[in-house]
């Protein structure tokens, strides 16, 4: 045990040259696609280095590896370890963007929007990273069906780049026909009258089936009670009615969520396509 | 070299560095937008697949004629098909098992015949409730889906021989 502690003390006392070797090893592992190996080596640098800049760089590189393999929860976790408060540091804006991107990919759109809001407020208005940050923020607002705010972000994003005016105008044109938000909570509550929630989501036929199923269960229960089969009326009729009614409410809520997701993905895809491939004058 | 130009050199270098940074930032943004687009395309396809989920019928094309015209199998198959395609989504019930009770029923009837299939279905339905949930073996539960594995293969006395 003593030996282990002595070795640990000895090992932690590394020189700059050794850190340089570790960088080389970690970067090489990343290049040969040994991602787990490179993650371990970057963490080793974090553990051994006493320089705050080196530590932050190693954590950032580790987050980049996680991003490359599509593990966005880990990207967020790693970037949160970087404590940086100076907006003049180039890592400040880069961290903000990568953190917001990871949160976007995790579908935490409100978190991503808040991250960009917080960090961009501290950056200079001419900072080159602001364009990317505002573009990402616009996509977050779209996901949250906040189209007015999304348009404002896009205006800010294109403000500095006069050469991309036609692209900007094309994107703004999409906002004339924005998808309508279907409130899942409202759909659930409307389904108190069976089928109405589904009809609200545009599925009128499905709503009709739901209404018929509920009506059948209720009629069966009532008929059984009328013919004095009280036990059957309660056990079969009421149980089925409860199952169909709560099932219909749940279904209406799910339909609203799926419809919103579908519509907003289609809308966002139009915008991202224009941003990627749009005609440049 | 004129004196004015010498003063401008650092400014030109700064301008070039900013331009290079902006170009790389633009490329990075485009790469990330592509990542977002591909992820959202997959999400959209998943929703569409879920909506247009195809259900198998109890009787298959390759089954012998005697099974295809079996009235009991036809009735059971039709009831199962109607339940799975139209009623199941309106019904407030979350099955404890994987495959779900209706899929299990289809499997056991097609593999073991109507009599054993109906008995096994009845057995499964009586085990699919909150009281029976407490006696599920923890190792049979898939941590991702939260469902307990209970395939029809657990109920066969003889192993299935695959003919090549």
From TrEMBL, chain B:
InterPro entries to which the protein is assigned, alphabetical: Membr_insert_effic_factor_YidD
Signal sequence interval, chain numbering: none
Coiled coil: none
PANTHER family for this protein: MEMBRANE PROTEIN INSERTION EFFICIENCY FACTOR-RELATED
Entry-linked NCBIfam families: membrane protein insertion efficiency factor YidD
Stated name of the protein: Membrane protein insertion efficiency factor YidD
